[in-house]
Design goal:
The complex is a heterodimer of chains A (about 250) and B (about 350). By secondary structure, chain A is an alpha/beta fold. Helices cover about 35% and strands about 25% of the residues of chain A. Chain A starts with 5 loop residues before the first strand and ends with a helix. Chain B has a single domain, classed as Orthogonal Bundle (ABC transporter involved in vitamin B12 uptake, BtuC). Classes of the chains: A alpha/beta (about 250), B mainly alpha (about 350).
Amino acid sequence: MDGSDVLLRAHAVTRRWGGLVAVDRVSLALERGTVHAVIGTNGAGKSTLINILSGEIAPSDGRVELLGQDVTGWSQPRRARAGLGRSYQRNTIYPSFSVLENCRLAAQARHQKPWQWWTDAKRCEASVAAAHAAAQRAGLDDLLDRVAGLLSHGQKRQLEIAMCLATAPKVLLLDEPLAGMGAEETDRMLALLADLKAAHAILLVEHDMDAVFRVADRITVMVNGAVLASDSPEAVRSSPEVQAAYLGGH
Amino acid sequence: MTAGRSRVAFVAFAFGALALYPLVAEDYGMDLVTKIMIYALFALSLELLVGSTGLVCFGQAAFFGIGAYAAVLLSPKYDAAPLLWLMPASMGVAAAYALFMGALSLRTRGVYFIMVTLAFAQMAFYVIHDTPLGGGTDGIYLTAKPVLAIGGATLLDLDNSRVIYGFTLACLVAVFGGLALLLRSRFGRALAGIRVNEQRMRATGFSTYPYKLAAFVVSGAIGGLAGFLFAVKDGFVNPEMLGWHQSGAVLIMIILGGLGHLRGALIGAFAFVLLQELFMSEAVFGAFARHWHLGLGLTIIASVALLPRGLVGIPAQVRERLFGRRVGRPFGARGSPGTEARNGRL
């Protein structure tokens, strides 16, 4: 019996593109209450791993379990509705909508009711409430009416997280949420992640090593699609293998 | 007056003017405006796909033509068919074809989607054109127009051009209002999300395929309604109605009017048909009227170049020119950001 707090589990997932093995028999478990960072050089397969876990691409081999259920054959929308939220490395927002509408539309995924075409979407109280809560949590409550495309880069990253939270996920897969952020914005985002991990299992793919070591409870190091090491931050930091392959004596 | 109110006022004024027009109109004008309103319905059907959902369908004529042919083929040979049966039936046949066409074409994207929808429309064209079913190149006549009768009393006799005018206007108002409601509902907002960023929609938990397919079927039904009305108005159908020229013309209408706005479809249909009449008029252009395609084409090229947001965008463009206030428009956004950020888009 696994610990009941394992919310997402990957069993030897593999993805081959022709002769190239982008992700090679990667297994990991995401637990509630932990930030699990995945680090590795460019091309190590981190984003592909997130895409496999979230269902955007199918694995060539292996299994993915969400909340104890085998979801390998599930589509991405179905996994999302079951509690798997993800953010993207590049900003993937709705630039022409307001900040609130970006969050509301994300929240609407839980209350779709497409046949109710006579009801104004703004009257969907459940999704409006969830949107407000998510925007506030991500620190965007002053910018609700702003057109999302006009936000600063850091604010767009916050919006990515807010949209993710609006769907009430249990597992968060965050692809470089800190990319391009200033020091102050980074601090705020790390505080948010620390706050979120109580109720969520978080997978964090990130290049900013200082940030990773500040917030991660567990670190998996990937090289050429395979897991080189998976351990506590201290153990990873002192591992000679990891230092040779990646950290460069960090 | 806010932008939202002025849009509602414009639409109310336009429908009011259309309602009063028969008081002053002669037969020619009535027929022309009826035709324009039918094209406006047709343009609205495509606007739902292109402007609202981001699906560039190049086979819209199939729905128009199938609705028209269904109206003729489902009518009894000599007697008038009941309107309440014939109209939904024609729309239903067009919607069924839309279901078939959408189910397969929505598996492709981008330029392939455009080509596949064109192929489906051409397929329907050749079935009508080359088989005994559709009467070949000559088309078929609708001998008796449908009537709405309860008991023995005829309430609506669509043989009368004024009745057709009124009925077409009623259909246009109903479809316009219905689509305006639809677009601000959760379904409509999901379609807008699919247009702007389908990948994100899937990642947040929307299965986008059924949404797009539903939009396709609704669009097909509205296109079929336009075709039905056209067949009833002229009492005649021919394969041209399914031709790709027709799909192209309706695409030009909504681009000319302004994508992303329902009233753009309305304005575009008016502008397109009136421009066509203008360039075909021998009184204005003399012998050159024979080459009306050239004049129409050049005008459309010029207006697309000068009015990137279509005729709908003229007031905003004038304001920006006068006050020098250029509202930043995020990449990939349609319409001004303020409009889009608010919910309802008329």
